[in-house]
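INFO batch 0412 | record 1 of 1 | parsing
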Amino acid sequence: EAGSLYLGVEVDAESGDATDERLDLDSDRLTTHGVIVGMTGSGKTGLGIVLVEEVLASGVPVLVIDPKGDMGNLLLNFPDFRPEDFAPWVDAGTAKREGVTREELAASEAEKWKKGLERTGIGPERMRAVRDGVDIRVLTPGSTAGIPLNLVGDLSAPDASWDEAGESIRDEIEGLVSGLLVMVGIEADPLTSREHILLSNLIEHAWRGGATLDLPTLLLQVQDPPMRRLGVFELETFYPEKDRTKLALRLNGLLASPSFAEWIIGEPLDIQSLLWAPDGRPRASIIHLAHLSDAERMFVVTLILSKFVTWMRKLPGTSELKATI
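INFO prediction complete | emitting tokens
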């Protein structure tokens, strides 16, 4: 049924056995926020994967921020239930403990999943429809293990009007600048930090003028800004050239670092392309963060969410679920 997300069947509280009662959720219930809570091992990730699959099956794209690395399991869709499809994903240690070969364990798992899904009314046709009708990808910012995501190599202005989305654009700039400064070891307050204020003004000046901006250009503008006043003070009074040079050197160290190269290659951070494939299919773009440090994760999440808000505020209002993050 359109707009209905099938979560599974209800379980008898006393026996623990599955019943024939379906549990459905109206997709319109997800137009604000939702949270899944539970103890370790209670099935939070499993329920999350079911929700994502159902949303995708209804034709709605999903942007998944994955700090633990679990959500790549969305790609494990084997509608033919062939043991050889399961074999690469079963644990050799488990097979050894159970006294069976890896191939035998794979056959057992395939049969278990087939029967389990049949009990809840999910057959191969539905699985194929999700697999073929959706583009699921794993993106790895700061790494080439998956699809690299270019977070800071391209600082082009967002496609939004300053009159209509000025607040959102400034939030995006704040997140970008905060993340950059964290990556060079500077904890900066957006309201008091000279570094943050200067970089934010440089980016806003470029974006308001429709100029293309990248990190090397931004670095050069730190030393020679296109404005001569910040607030009521002359630039040289507020932030002298010798201090700006120190900031430029720290940013240059980031650019020169071989480990930073993976941050400026790959697909640009474009929310529309993260949600929709070129052929029109909805996408599940999984942003894998398990390999990153806490500071890097904060940078990625802040930047993606601020970009998402800017993109979202360009759209007309609706009571229907159009995208899930």
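INFO post-check: The longest strand covers residues 18-26.
INFO record closed
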